[in-house]
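Note to self: keep these together.
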Amino acid sequence: MASIAIQNALYTEEREANRLKDEFLAVVSHELRTPLAAMLTWAGLLRGGKLEPASAARGVEVIERSARAQAQLIDDLLDMSRIMTGKMRLEMQPLEVRAVVRCALDSVAPAAEAKSIALAAALDGVPVRVLGDSVRLQQVMWNLLSNAIKFTPKGGRVDVRVRVANGDAAISVGDTGAGISPEFLPHVFDRFRQADSSSTRSHAGLGLGLAIVRHLVDLHGGTVHAESAGTGRGATFVVSLPLRELREEPAAATLAHARPRAAAPGVGLEPAFDLRGLRVL
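Structure:
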């Protein structure tokens, strides 16, 4: 009887895994097809040569934006493939966490401004140093900040805080957005899972960003967890990384300013201004 129960449980788990993969493939197909359709439509109109200059410029902008969206999707798929096959490699260097966070904030500031979202940063005055891959940590921060902005309605707020807590560097990203239901909260970092995987969902994306965040943080010896009071009540994501005591200023400090993989186009990552306490209105 016990063996039958185990077989039934394994069969149920396998069936659920296959269902999630089928849903994920459907989402991938939809997400790839949508920007392709826009690109092909505008390419045809531009080829006809009958568009007004303003319309032609808009067409080029749509094609460029759609191409970036596809590149983002493909990058996420490639990253997840590297993670699942154990081929993700990190270039570990001593770095200052606040510099990484400022660069990520600089990248997402235009997106926050476009939605009139207040973007506030509270960074401790004391240096917070860790050993990590600056590009991948910026990817972590970019994913968390982009998610917060995406799921926060116009006029909302996103708060970022860096501090030392329990011997770790703690980075929190909180928002006043859609929140996470209690049923989905335990699965928020699972790959192939989305709170809404239907083709009519209101937010685009593959839902791989948080799974990639979790694996990258794990590779740094850290942890990440999510908190939410429920749907419509916002969410907070907290990343904890082991502190590294350095005897001198890191020679590779400039690595913290390397461009994140999915940085907003046209936005330089060398901070143009100090974002401490900034509110983008």
